[in-house]
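cache lookup: miss for this entity combination. No prior model stored, computing from scratch. Input as submitted by user K.M.:
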Amino acid sequence: MASISRLPCTTRRVPAARSLATVAKPSKPVLSTAVILNRAPILTPSPTVFERAFYAYQQRIRRALHNPFPSEFYFKQGSLLEARFNSEERYRERVAWGPGYVKEEVMSEERKAAEKAAIDQMALQDRSDDKLLPRVHPSDRVRDYQSLDRKGRRNLYLLIRDTGHKTPWEFPRGLAAQDELLHQSAQREFLAKCGNYMDTWIVTRKPIGMFKPRVPEQAPEKITFFFKAHIMAGQVRPADSMKDFMWLTKQEIQTRVTKEYWEGVKDMLSDH
Amino acid sequence: MPQHSPQRIARSLTRFGRPPPIKKPLKRNWRTRLPTPHVKIVGREFTPCRLEDHYHATLQEDAMYMTYIHESEPRPAPRQIRLTHDPANPYSRFRHNPPVGGSQLGKKPPPPDTPANVVRLEKIVIHSFMKQAIGGRSNLLGLIMAMRALSGETEKGAGRHAVSGVQIVHGKKSGAPMYDFLAQLVEFVLPRLKDFPGVILPPPAASDHSPSAVSGVVSLGLDPAAMAFFPQIEVNLDSYPRPYGMHVHFVTNATGVGAENRARALLSGFQLPFTRR
């Protein structure tokens, strides 16, 4: 659930400047735009222990109360497929209700053995060598923060850093030009910083949030507007000055940015 | 193919052994003779749902940003342009006291944007009309089975007598079955339809105040040919006497002016294609 503070409706009341002749007028604020580039989750989240217990309980309720499956509508009477389905269904019932619940079918020993052999034969024929891929990618194990395959269950965000001057980590940011709309400036600066080697989509023309760091007296205010974007394909190739980039989850961002910056941006990031 | 064992989720964690011994027999329904549990049993989500997770992880946030309308201060109270009955007056106290000029449903602005009313899918209704059912009820059986296969439920499955003939109406409740149907539609059915460019948008000149534009419901019709592409019907297509077309309504919580556009924005996030003629 989105929190209220993520809505870009926070209108901060600016204290009215005193209009005395001796006080110098504060100069215009410096506007810049930043893009929060998001890689959406590529795997489904893993259920928690509580969720697993809840689903198991609900599945038993559902099994107890659901409509009986119309097996005669889907299987020919006495066919091998029906026999296989019935044996699997008996197994599922046994798991759900315990060993004593399921009644064995009245059937001669030879027939039972023949059916089992046929079902095993079918299983052999249907077997494929396809293996499920692991949910943990190799890039997770080697801590490759630049890989887009890492942390498949989480939302990842792009952080970059100017390695030359050892600036702190931040979202790709650039100054807005005169006579330029904010969303155009965001697009231009983003491509200049991160390269044109990826498919991205900036979600809205409206900024999703704003960050205003504390500045010394008389200095112009610095205001950063944030825009949300998604990456569809490709990878970041930063310009020369910007060498370093990382794909991080919300929690990993907290440990890498300044406290003031974190307080300003944390509500724009997803906990999922 | 591996054996279709119950989901690992259901097996893990808790071992359900033998049920506890019943010391006092349960009350039985006098008509059906079935036992009545002494607690109210409620069925809820029984499995994680991929599209619902996608909605919460990505779509909800994007939909909020895309449909957000900034209002700097609370809305002013509506102007009192006509006299209304005094509610303190005992004569008019419990009487119908409509606003002058009607409810102006088509002109109501959407409610102020809050985190709680971000546009979301509430239910999907599918229904189908069958003319032959007027002649003989048995013609409905195939359609009932098709609706059951599509929706996974039989409750309120068939036989609502609507304006003309018999209509099969089925409301799909929110949750996993709803999202499963949506996933099947956009992943199996629509890509395989011939000459389907997408759901046709109304022309730009269409009124923003029509009842359909302010209701937050997106509707589309599926040809009979489309039914064969649903995987649960494809497996035994021969069992159905004929293919059936259907109407699909995606009901969202959006209301007010522009509600249908907001619903479309949400559904395009689930990859339902829209196009102009």
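stored under new cache key. Chain B touches chain A through 52 residues (CB under 8 Å).
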